[in-house]
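Cross-check.
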Amino acid sequence: MPVRQPLWLGLDLGTQHARALVVNDDGEVFGTGRAALTSTRCGRRHQQDPEQWWAAVAAATRAALADVHADTVGALAVAATSGTVLLVDRAGHPRTEALMYDDARAVQEAVLVEDIGAPLWRELGYEHMQPSWALPKLLWLLNTHPHLANETVRLCHQADLITARLIGRPGPTDTSNALKSGYHLLEERWPSEVLNRLGIPPQILPAVVRPGALLGRVTAHASAVTAIPAGTPVVAGMTDGCAAQLGAGCVEIGSWNSVLGTTLVLKGVSPRLVRDPAGALYCHRGLNGTWLPGGASNSGAGVIAEWFAHADLAELTARAAQLPIGPVAYPLIGRGERFPFRAADAETFMLGHPDTDAHVFAAVLLGVACVERLCFDRITMLGAPTDGMLTFTGGATRNEYWTQLRADLLGRTVHIPEQAEPALGMAILASTLGGRSVAEAASSMVRRRGERTPNPARADILRQRYADFVQALTVRGWLDAAIAEYARARL
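Predicted model, tokenized:
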């Protein structure tokens, strides 16, 4: 009888759905599953019922494993949204609502946290503790639910709830999820000198391990619910952004993944912690002693959904591709920017006078490409290596014209993975339990759809439009003059 190859299960909890993916050592897909999630939004508030998460994961895994032999799943890992937290009891049952990654109700708590922990946050390289981060939200939960003071409750990140259900008990969290809860990534400890002053008792905080550490094994009860074979090892995962970076094969020092979806997100790999005095870029701890610097802009493809909601985007793209390079927009989703610079008053503007919807569409595509280049200029200025492989992922890669435009403006060859998603990243991470390094696993499991090389014919006009864009940001007082000068010098 032939020996069955091991399969690896990656789970991803997003905002709108849970996803399960089963792949082998070569990245061949053996099963997929997806289940919907619903949210409640009101102003700054965004929350979910955490019991939904477990039900959605169970539905997704049952679908993904429907045609998989029970004895071939080698291990699994879980990714989830960064900064999504709740309080649970000692058995892991929810005792509060779950505050989602972008819930920003903890405004006053964020001010207190930033003030008390300012020296530490500077040391860790991110300067600012935002209301949407987990530590201010933890403080808000404790302040809002004083009746829990007499109970044994504990901080639980979104992924922690799923791993606890899988292994039958609450376990450690991982360094990736613990970052926004104030974990000291350099010394790998909870900073009691800050947390004590905030009134956060140490027993409320989970133990912390690095991604890839063995947490436990799937229980018989969890197996009956999810169809994951009992005894399957569960390893510590990562936040969804870090997991997507891994799923894109971005694991070697100097490599970067640019994700263009609703917003633009860049994540790379550095041998050292990169500190940004402006707090626009911050680092996760990576695998094998690396660091993962990254940042997220408020610009991206989301503007297209708003401005061209009922348009035929394929037809608009075809028309835009026939136009000479012209006007450029700074397309923001809402007001304010967070990366590659911080400016609360930043707002959309247009350079030039587009006179048709195709011209406006082309200006938006070029504007996002300019933001992306400025992100890389900022990253390079901060000393992070950027000379490794560059990958593009996200829904925008389906637009061939836009992808080529971005490569042309960056002046770099770009690789497009066939399937880059957090669930694949978690399958890659799970596979390292079999003895492979993460670089070896990513090399064999991440499949390439193609690559784009820059077209030198329009390099000069694109550089000029980019210089105009940088100047416009500087004149408006949003972009620091030193960054602007550096960006122009790199042209």
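Residues 127 and 356 are 43 Å apart (CA to CA). The longest strand covers residues 29-36. Passed to J.P. for a second look.
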